[in-house]
Amino acid sequence: RGIRGGRPVVFVHPKDLVVLGFEDGDQVDVVSEWHDGDRRAPGFRLVAYSVPRGTCAAYFPEANVLVPLDSVADESGTPTSKAVVVRLEARDQTVGDPVGSDDHPKR
Length: 107
Hints:
mainly beta
């Protein structure tokens, strides 16, 4: 993937970065949304990458803090790490809609 300088990165489609008002390399906090409150992973670098539009990806265990403990698969009981709704926040400023939410524009 050509990532240098650390693993706290979030891969986002280049067109989504534009829509959300970000640029490749921007520093953000990744915030997950759950019924009991938000969880924050601070200081992640945005990386323009060919992921599906309206989604993002990050490395684990760096992004573990975003997964609610009670968010598990019905049958296996494993964490739902691939289905966590998040939003990206610039330092000291909220930008964009939650990625993965139903109200996020479909593209």
